[in-house]
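Dear colleagues,

I hope this message finds you well. In preparation for our joint manuscript, I am sending the Type I restriction modification DNA specificity domain-containing protein (Actinoplanes xinjiangensis) sequence together with its predicted structure, so that both groups work from identical material. I would be grateful if you could confirm receipt.
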Amino acid sequence: MTRRPYRELVVHARGGGWGTDREIDGHDPVAVIRGTDFAAVRSGRTDAVPRRWEKRSLIAPRRVRPGDVLLEISGGSAARGQTTGRSLFVGPDVLPAFEVPVIPASFCRLVRFDPTVVDPRYAYYGLRDMYLSGRAGDYENQSTGISNFQFGRFLDAELLRVPPLDEQRRIVAVLSALDDKIEINDRVVTAYEELLRAEFQALTGTGGASVPVTDLVDFNPRTARPDPAGAPYVDMAALPTHVAGIRSWSHRPPRGGSRFRNGDTLLARITPCLENGKTGYVDFLAPDETATGSGEFIVLRARPGVPPQFPYFLARDDRFRGHAVRKMAGSSGRQRVSATDAADFRISTPDPQRLAAFGERAGAAFAHMAALLTEVRALEALRDTVLPELMAGRQPLPAPAPACTSDGTEDAGSSVYE
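The corresponding structure tokens are as follows:
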């Protein structure tokens, strides 16, 4: 089977831009997708993608089209073992979600493939395999603390198995079926959150009498000691930025930091994590189990009579987050908000009946969201297991669907896998 360098498959590659944050002559509005936006865009969330103004003459060669791939070429995190080389496939449903042209950010590169030789999504799955296997790290160098992906070296050195197009498309069909189900689950979770955030704002934004938020929520409450032999541990990287569910955690002997239990909310208190929205709802522990996490978390817990999801939506609320950001203190780049300062906040007194109704709806939604996320983790594990096998040609493919003959009967034909 032919293995070809990516250079022979790419027909257009262009670095991204960043433009300016204001309207000036000769510039047009664009949406700029960063590597940090890949997961959100893949799940249908485009609101956090920056809108900028780019020089008009630079938009056309950078403008993203359906079938393009965006490749992260700078960034990564050596501390977390995360290399550059993450990628995003731009399917036909991505661009209509934006009201302006889309370009990649300056730390990304637009890559366009020759569809007569390679199915673009098949080439994308080759990049996913490169990243998940760790091969992307082979093309990195370090510059002033930032990892840089050597794109030219990658084009010549990274080889992709290129079977006939019909086989490529069958491989894509298997992998995209898993990805599409993951995406559907993520979109349902996003819809739940948007509806409940709107309800929370209506519940707490009616004006009138207000109470200290500490009447409803405890900040860094006392929590039982974790098992000294080992306990679940959540680091800052695992805290989501847009949705409640925490997708990953590890186990380790407790060594200080924050303590929490099911029903608690974790709020990042340090810059830029607070500004970026890092917040998560804890629902993955065993009953009465205590977990630990980063010392840069503030733990929020509902007081008696308050739904456990209430602190989570408080932490997501723009009014509260703005208050917390304004209360940050410390040296540039290492600013934090203390739990005491974050708790110095007043909130409109929620009507008890409406609060109870909100709790019922939020509880049912969060139970469904947790089930969807459990399914997502299983699907992701399956996809990441079969991906390298399919790309290497080691995993047999399902037989192609039989064609219909002119009289309407099925023609079984033959298969290269028989």
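For the figure legend, we might mention the following. Residues 410-418 have pLDDT under 50 and may be disordered. The two ends are 17 Å apart (CA to CA).

With kind regards,
E.M.
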